[in-house]
Amino acid sequence: MLDWIGDSMVDVAMVGAGQTKFGNHPLGLKGMWAEAIEKAVSSVDHGFQPTDVEEAFIGSIAFGGSQLGNTAALLTEHSGMEGVSVRRVENACASSGFALRDAWMAIKSDQADIVVAGGIEKMNDLSTSRKRYWLGVSGDTEWERLAGLTFPGTYALTARRYFHEFDSTHDDLVHVSVKNHMHGFENQVAHLRKEVSFDKAKSGFMVADPLTLYDCCPTSDGASAVILVADHLAHKFTDTPIWVKGSGAGSDHLALHDRPSLTQLRATQNAALKAYKTAGVTAGDIDLAEVHDCFTIAEVLATEDLGFAGRGLGGRFAREGQGRRNEGSVTINASGGLKSKGHPLGATGTGQAVEIFKQLRHQVEPERQVRDAELGLTHNVGGSGATCAVHIFGRER
Amino acid sequence: MSSQFISNDEGVFLASQYGPHWAGPDGDRLTLAITLLNQVPPGEISLQCFEEYLEFTSSVSLQAVIETATNWKVDEEATTMLHTHSDEFIVGITSSIEPPTYPTFDDVESDNETRNDLRNAWQEEVSGVSQGAYVSQAQHMIASASRLGLRAQSDKDRLVWPPRQLNGAGERIREPTEQLSKLATILTWTRLSAAGAPSEFSGRAPILGGVSTVLVEFEEGPKGVFMLADDESKSPEIDGTVRFEVRRLYGQDGLMHYGLKAVLC
Question: At residue A1, does pLDDT exceed 50?
Answer without folding.
Answer: no
